[in-house]
Amino acid sequence: MNTEDSTPWYKQFWPWFIFSIPGLTVVAGISMIFSASENPDGMVVDDYYKTGLAINQTLARDKHAEELGLQAIGRVDKANKQIRLTLYGQNTEQSLNLTLTHPTSEKYDIRIELRAAKGSREFIGQLPALPHEKRYILLEPADKNWRLTGHALFPEMIQWSLRPGL
Q1: Which has the closest alpha carbon to 154: 129, 136, 133, 138?
Q2: Which of 165, 162, 145 has its CA nearest to residue 84?
Q3: Quick check: is 123 in a domain?
Q4: H helices of the chain, where?
Q5: Is residue 76 part of a domain?
Q6: Do the domain assignments include residue 46?
Q7: Domain residues for 105?
Q8: CA-CA distances (angstroms) from residue 144 to 20, 70, 107?
Q9: Cα dist. 127→2, 23, 69, 83, 164 in Å?
């Protein structure tokens, strides 16, 4: 009795299973190279002393905002694609910069210039697109001598608050 299998090798399961392991490894390697080239790591800081000084300047900005008694309440006007922000405290600025920072990638950050509405504490800016995730929020004047920070989960949060050094 002849027990040899007469089907050709390319119709067998095991040769294709064995060939698939190196094939999948090559595909995974190419996808990792593509992913690494599209999303490079952030730059490593080589001068820690200057970075430490910058942290002190940031803390000074928070302290200055606290001294001025600054706080803000922000909200999104979805109908007009605007951000409306009410600023409380001693402020003489006519325009402010608002940054909606993406948690992981700088290329998704949104920067908006807010202009003061006449006769009120309200600042209004045009929103290019409504984000759909958590964002860290930074509010500062053009000269960057103070700052307010906070975070919001878009579009679920109707309004959010900004405070010094949050």
Answers
A1: 133
A2: 162
A3: yes
A4: 13-38, 48-67
A5: yes
A6: no
A7: 70-162
A8: 57, 14, 22
A9: 78, 46, 27, 6, 23
How many CB atoms are located within 10 Å of the residue 81 CB? 12
Give backbone dihedrals phi and psi of 49, rounded to 5 degrees, phi first: -65, -45
Identify the CATH number of the domain in which residue 140 sits: 2.60.40
pTM for the whole structure: 0.67
Say if 52 falls within a structural domain.
no
pLDDT in tens, 47-87: 655 656 656 667 888 888 888 889 999 988 888 888 899 99
The letter for the amino acid at 101 is: T
Where are the extended beta strands (E) located within 41-121?
Answer: 71-77, 82-88, 95-101, 110-116
Count CA within 13 A, CB hemisphere, residue 95: 8
Contacts for 14-18: CB closer than 8 Å, 24+ residues apart: none
110 touches 97 (CB < 8 A): no
| φ, ψ dihedrals at 127, nearest 5° | -95, 115
Q: How many domains does the chain have?
A: 1
Q: How confident is the model at residue 17 (pLDDT cuts 50, 70, 90)?
A: very high
